[in-house]
Amino acid sequence: MINQKCRFCGTHLKYTFADLGMSPLSNSYLRPDQLMEREIFYPLHAYVCEGCLLVQLDEFEAPEQIFSDYAYFSSYAATWLRHVQQYADMVTTRFDIHASSQVVEIASNDGYLLQYFKQKGTPVLGIEPAANVAKIAIEKGIPTAIEFFGKSTANKIITEYQLQADLLIANNVLAHVPDLLDFVAGMKLLLKPGGVITVEFPYLLELIKNNQFDTIYHEHFSYFSLMTVQKIFASQGLTIFDVDELSTHGGSLRVYARHGEDSGKLVHSRVNNLLLNEETMGLTELALYRKFNDQVKETKWKILNFLISARREGKTIAGYGAPAKGNTLLNFCGIRTDFMDYTVDRSPYKQGLYLPGTHIPIEHPEKIRETKPDYLLILPWNLQEEVMEQMSYIREWGGKFVIPIPEVKVI
């Protein structure tokens, strides 16, 4: 990316944030007949812009290639479903969302969230680029436009569906967008004059503090602080008027935005307080970002030290989950079947496939009970409590859980 420019401010990028070597696309799971075929690896090298401090990856594959047929279905994480149901209840009350309101979600996946508004009798529309995932939502009765989002799609929705949004939702999609300005400009177009936008994204400060390098993968083009998101939104005429700090995905932000000219929604003190905290923590200075790569190396060494010691002692290790973040961790650390025999996943869409790069097989969770591994490495560490509750029976044979991030912890 040495000759590349920042996707927001245009500054030439030259400073490394995290160099994770070479990695395949993290959601490019393999069928058994593909294991002997050529597999494409790309540089997984995140840079920080010295101009606006946006952390970003280069675009090696277009979103159309990555997301048109997608392996992630949101409805298989019980913790996430509880989170979005609580969100639906909260915003319905706070912003008086009712049967005459219009709720639109960008990157609506399999209808995991919009189903809760539909249950309340609120009109909903999903916008989802992955046809295989959108099909599930449509079967649930969630109307869904199969489109990538930006200004052209916003205009198409306004024209063809004759609607704008009272509540426009974008959960964990902003990072997936290479053309940030087009995406945010599209949100402004689709939002009613008095409407509200809520956007959730993993928080860069938590990524740095807790060594969450595995949340860096090719499908995530950008990594955000409140400071950078505020600048990006302001450039397109949107004002962030409130922010919540969330525990999801290892620490996320939910920002609330309105049209810049909508003076009825005052900017809450939480926004300025969090911006001040970012300054205090060093997010406004380049030095903090440039130190992160050393933290990443240290975390890798600790993970490998544990695995090598366990294997030398004759212990068996299995994985739980096949998330994108897990594929970053496994490929960066060089963890293959010599360390981890297999992983399991609740999603039937992943069972029977193999992890990209490492070729670790993905099994049904019952495989754990059959093989009784000594250690269960939880790859979706952000769901560790849910996983440990589901798999608590490994204690019967003395099995232990391993949490790899922020550093190796055996429970």
Secondary structure blueprint with pairings:
Elements: E1 15-23, E2 42-48, E3 55-56, H1 63-67, H2 78-94, E4 103-106, H3 114-119, E5 124-127, H4 131-139, E6 144-145, H5 151-160, E7 165-171, H6 180-190, E8 191-202, H7 204-209, E9 222-223, H8 226-235, E10 238-246, E11 252-259, H9 269-281, H10 286-290, H11 292-312, E12 317-320, H12 324-333, E13 343-344, E14 362-363, H13 366-371, E15 375-378, H14 384-390, E16 400-403, E17 409-410
Parallel strand pairs: 4-5, 4-7, 5-6, 7-8, 12-13, 12-15, 13-14, 15-16
Antiparallel strand pairs: 1-2, 2-3, 3-9, 8-11, 10-11, 16-17
Question: Could you give a quick summary of the protein structure above?
Answer:
By secondary structure, the protein is α/β, with parallel strands linked by helices.
Q: Roughly how many Å is the radius of gyration?
A: 21 Å
Number of E-type strands: 17
CATH-assigned homologous superfamily of the largest domain: Vaccinia Virus protein VP39
Number of helices: 14
**Helical content (DSSP H or I, runs of 4+):** 25-40%
Protein name: Methyltransferase domain-containing protein
Organism: Cohnella suwonensis
Pfam families: Methyltransf_13, Methyltransf_14, Methyltransf_23
Domain Methyltransferase putative zinc binding: 6-67
